[in-house]
Amino acid sequence: MRWQSFVTPRSCCRPPCLPKSIALALFVGSFIVALKYSTTRAALMPRLLCLHGKGETGADFARRLEPIRSRCPGVELVCVDAPHALGGGFAWWHLPPGERSFTSSTFQGWDQTVSYIQDVWTKQGPFDGMLGFSQGAILLAALAALGLLGEKSVIQPRVLMLYGSAVPGPFKRELAARSAALQADPGAHISYRALHVLSKNDEVNPPEGAREVAAAMGGQVLEHSGGHEVPLDEASLAAYSAFLSAAAVADHGHSEPV
Prior knowledge:
The protein has a single domain, classed as Alpha/Beta hydrolase fold, catalytic domain (Rossmann fold), CATH 3.40.50. The chain is built from 8 helices and 8 strands; from the N terminus they run H-E-H-H-E-E-E-H-E-H-E-H-E-H-E-H. It has helices spanning 20-44, 58-64, 66-71, 110-123, 135-145, 172-184, 207-217, 234-252; strands spanning 47-51, 76-80, 84-86, 89-91, 129-133, 159-163, 193-199, 220-224. Helix 5 links the parallel strand 5 (129-133) and strand 6.
């Protein structure tokens, strides 16, 4: 719909006052349209499968993400425990002593994790997308590198949000190949919209790794000044809301109120 502005000539008479009944009807009608638009937007917001960081639990992660749910009415955040026990929490894989996820050549328990995620996606769905922090974000990068996210896969997200990601060590070649392919064909079809949130002050997963992941997966990059965290300041929450709203509207083909 195109909006046009009409300017009343200065010589025109003052517009007549509307009867109260008509004015009230117009006000109520406008309110209903606005309410319907707001309700429609909320109904279109995605349902996201959320993957916590190493050593966390789904319940802990859900509490940390509560500001996002509150700021984005209609979004549903489903936080699950990873399949491998680690202390009082869980992990998506175990690592050899002294290794990090971006240095190790192996993820112990990887096959079990892939089967677990596919099972959750199928049995607890439908989901519209996925959100991952730290090891959970590296998991998303690894799945993307291996071609396990997309239209021909069991897991078919339309929206991805990655926080504090890094290059998955065992699959760095696959990720690099994906990055090269995307650079060679920037217009290549990608079946999901991605938001990569990283910090130049991240001392856990260096931001260079998160940028490599973004280059391989495509999407938007949001930088913040915090550390290794899910930033929840007002500017960040507004950015998440805008990203999720734009994705919801684009996926459902609405650019104007219905």
